[in-house]
């Protein structure tokens, strides 16, 4: 099988630089003749987007990157051997049994990969400093390759087989980009031939309706093909069609693929995909906005502002110190090291994040001056803080994207902005982010709209439990490689941090491809005031009888984690994983429990009976209110990328882990857990929090309700799985509630309907309230006095969004 990640990384790594004169590093280009048409102008602009500008080919890192480009192109030229069913011996595209099975996916992928190689060769021909700039033999090889692929596989008489993506996006994008780069060397007949081939596989009907594979990022990719087909073939109607077909991408959606008002981004109907397909959409729109700007076909749809707003509404909440959080990258988390290039790291949370940074810089060129300045400040901050994987040294990023990031990093007029703090709930994709000074965390859940995980194309084969309450977190200047450093192929997939899971053995790709499997649950979501939150998940296990209620109360320096009603009849043990920390190849971090330093040997395990607190050196602390029985394990784990991705490297990797988990035993009937996560806390801070027994009050931790109160913060949070009374709160129906009482005598009451089913809800707070100072339209009645009684109308149409009420306390 061809390396499947090349399809999605292709756009990200062939991103664009700002348009402008090639003052430095002028690519080989003869210019536009006098009397050029508007199509010629667009072609020149696209060429500039592909090759970049404003960088010196003799300065690092560009010098080395250009030399690498030349080396790759030289290798492709040398190994090219046109044959009946291939252009390269290792990329046979002739499918003996053409259909749409996994084998055919491989053949179609190798066809697209052949075009990618030609595009790489064309870049080496056009860029300065590659050692092959203007090389006649390379030019001949490129033209020979284009004609060979047209004659043998990608032409108007060929029937499609394998993966639709290879035919409609992968191959035509690379083909058209190569045509732009080599345009002056192509005959009219060649251009006509290639355009006919593109028309066959990407007809106008490909964007006739906004459905199926023509939505979200895929729609942007298809529009790119149509627009470039129009540019290369001087067909104005194609350009206009591609431009107009972008419009359905812009508006917020309420279901299926696209951007949601709450900042969610979905692709493949059920998969949170901000970090992968979302990156493609962001980068693709940035390039298309730029190439069409100022032309007859400029994108003027006012709803494009939604895309600009999404930079901070959808993407920035998941970017931390330059990485993009894995819980919005779908099956891309399994794309680590390629089987065909074992020396190259193909993707990681950092490398995916860097592509998004470069795309934001490009998109900023079409935004307002205020937006542009702020985004460049955000990007500069992310560049400066990414100590683990410096963006300016990104090995997978080409000169174009690097030039954009270098321009921002070296711009003295840009002030680096700090990481934003606060809490964001994304109920439409069952995700949440909690960002505090010094650390950030993110939750991954699943419900009847959002899949447990996505597998497909032989990728992400063991991501089964990533939606079972996985709690990921990073420090400001530590542990930024936690999920980057071979985490996914070496971690125990049944013990992901934060999850509750049955030890029932699951088959690779269990549940079905493309996010097909979703739990039959409604109550997933929470309430937030933008700084703190109550978040909950009614969990049903994948292909399991497991049921559990899980809650997270996200506070200033800690996250309170509760689990209750845990039951299962799988005839295996059930576990809730408090932590599973990747300690790297050495694994030397100290582990302290109740003041005692535990052994640092591997393997090591111990049942910690009555444990009050634990601490992992260089990471953070864990508090178990009232004491708990927790199992601790130091484990040296080996795995291969090919274990979780069939196109991955077969080289064995080893990482050391320190795992804390609660063993609920065999077929539990009503198990529970309680713990605090304190990212970045010292041993002294962890011990002190454990000793301060009055800091946290557990109001409820049952199958019916879960709630806590932290008096010093004025915080009360309750997840009502069923109506009832918890502490001073009474709810008539299921809901999530979060209250913050402030020192100025006011309070904020946040309420949501995660189930999206309540047509009426009454919430009573047994607390004296003088007046209600603000309330949403969903509140139909508010009674104050010795207690506050809020009556909500129909909440079923609020999509789980928080309803915020402010009051003056009595």
TrEMBL record:
One GO MF annotation is: carbon-oxygen lyase activity, acting on polysaccharides
> Which residue intervals define the domain Polysaccharide lyase family 8 central in the entry?
423-681
Q: Which positions are catalytic residues?
A: 268, 277, 331
Domain Polysaccharide lyase family 8 C-terminal positions: 697-762
Instruction: Name the GO cellular-component terms.
Output: extracellular region
> What's an example GO BP annotation here?
carbohydrate metabolic process
- Where in this chain does the record put each Polysaccharide lyase 8 N-terminal alpha-helical domain? 46-380
Q: What's in the keyword line of the UniProt record?
A: Lyase, Signal
Instruction: Identify its protein family.
Output: Belongs to the polysaccharide lyase 8 family.
What is this protein called in UniProt? Answer: Polysaccharide lyase 8 family protein
